[in-house]
Amino acid sequence: MQFDDRAGMHRVCTERLGDKAGRQFAAMARLGFRLTQPADDAPAAGLSRLGGLALLEPGTPWPELDGVPLSLHAVLDTDALAARLGNELPTRPGLLNFFYLDPDVPYEEYRKLDASSPEACRVLPADPARAIEAVAPEPARSYPSRPVHAAEAIMLPDCWDVQDGDVEFDTDEHWGAPSLILGTMGDLDGNTAGSHCAFGWPDTSYGSSVAYRDADGPVVHLLQLAEDEDLGWGWGDAGTMYFTIPAKAFAAGDFSKAEAQGRCC
């Protein structure tokens, strides 16, 4: 669920959920960005882009899984977002390069790989002052480059990402917190997995969720990549790819702990 301002978001939550549950749900809001086409009044967010060449520091090896190079899908310029993210960006990683194992590699090689391996995803930071363009080695794909504008949005979690302890609900009326949110906020639900987004909360669909907690605590959503015919990538039937990182690793600037999760019908 995405809103343009916090006051409007708080009002909607309390009107629909009641004062206590509404405040609890509103407290879960995170600042995020819709990644859209730049325009005269909506400039590109620094060097942020979908596809194109990687921006890596000299000497950085291209990430691989069992000898097969991953494909570069996006570069996020966090310096261009830092002023708006504030405390939600605890470190200044500069550029973030998002890599994933491309399913469109030669079949004989791809079928031997474990796409669920943590090594199938990589997020590599780079200092913008030192970063240089790096060309993907074969058989990794190189996608067209598309600069993106970062449109600020206040994001609430999808109903399936809300757990029973997050908000107060009537156990006689609802089987769990997701039932409460789905029943009262359903027409505002953020199941718009056809969009590209950064930070905030991911948009999920078809009852699937993107874990925002692990054994060590909260998880931060970094990037959501939807199916994109113009760029030439897809993640299964109406699929979306989500990059996340444990909050502790994010605070320490340790992007080796980043993970990718694909969701589709």
Automatic annotation (TrEMBL):
Entry-linked Pfam families: DUF1963 (PF09234)
Domain of life per record: Bacteria
Protein name in UniProt: YwqG family protein
Source organism (scientific name): Streptomyces roseoverticillatus
